[in-house]
Amino acid sequence: MIRPDLHLHTNCSDGVMSPELLMHECCMSGITLMAVTDHDTMSGSDALCEGNPPIPVIPAVELSMAEMPGLHLLGYGLARGQKFRDKIQELAALRDQRAQLMLQRLKEMGMPISYRDLLAKRHLEGGPDSTIGRPHIARALVRAGYCRNMQEAFAKYIGNGKPAYVPSERMHIEEAISLMNACGFLPVLAHPRELHLEDHLLESLLDMYCMYGLKGLEVYHPSARAKGYEPLVRMARRRGLLVTGGSDFHQENDSKHGRIGSTVEVWETREEDIPAFLEALQKAKQ
User: What is the rounded CA–CA span in Å between residue 43 and residue 19?
Assistant: First the structure.
């Protein structure tokens, strides 16, 4: 029986578990196929793929798109795709510059946080290629005693539109889809319900993205539970898109994301969808 989780995060981006610990937890949860989809870095998935993992790991990444909040693209690929990887490294460098600008704003507000210390902690936790995002800054604000918790850090200082917020540099989705396809990766639209669109508007977007070359839709995601998965299944099937799913796991006791394997049981067609997904991966690699 196939038990997939194709959307997982490690401490190489904004998750809390190391790749090795995440692998252990996936094994303990009965997962038989996993994908590490860290933001703007493939170091976590690469580390597992190179280490003779006990269960198959699909190299993957998650990218935030420029068009609107919540618009994310998952890229899955067995190919090396060096041009795509170079772009990911460029985005990671821009993310790092953004973090430095946010720290400068916090310093001007009387809340100095050492970039060097933050970077050292990130490298210690996630490795030399790990990226710095807002969750890491939020945790640093809590450690320094400036905030009681991460929610307060976002609400007061680093959330969208707050005093220390700096917009991120992002790719446009047409460019990202084109680059993924050209480099042997499958572009999959992540968590479509997090766009908070009526179905007819979402369908219009999907039609546009399919013209760009979109290959899949992440139907089985915790955010889709409230409205039910079937409408998204129909949207995907009508357009010949691959159906994928995953927990979007970041850490335990996370109200926004799912626990490891949380979408497995509701993904009733996974025995058909996963072979189709794996076949498409092989074709994209060629």
Answer: 9
Q: Tens digits of per-residue pLDDT, 114-133?
A: 888 787 776 556 565 567 78
Cα distance between residue 121 and residue 126, in whole Å: 8
Give residue-wise pLDDT tens across range 148-160. 998 999 999 999 8
pTM: 0.88
Q: Are 22 and 10 a contacting pair, CB within 8 Å?
A: yes
E-strand stretches of the chain: 4-8, 33-36, 57-64, 72-77, 185-189, 216-220, 242-245
Contact by Cβ (8 Å): 118, 140: yes
Domains detected in the chain: 4-87+172-285 (3.20.20.140), 98-158 (1.10.150.650)
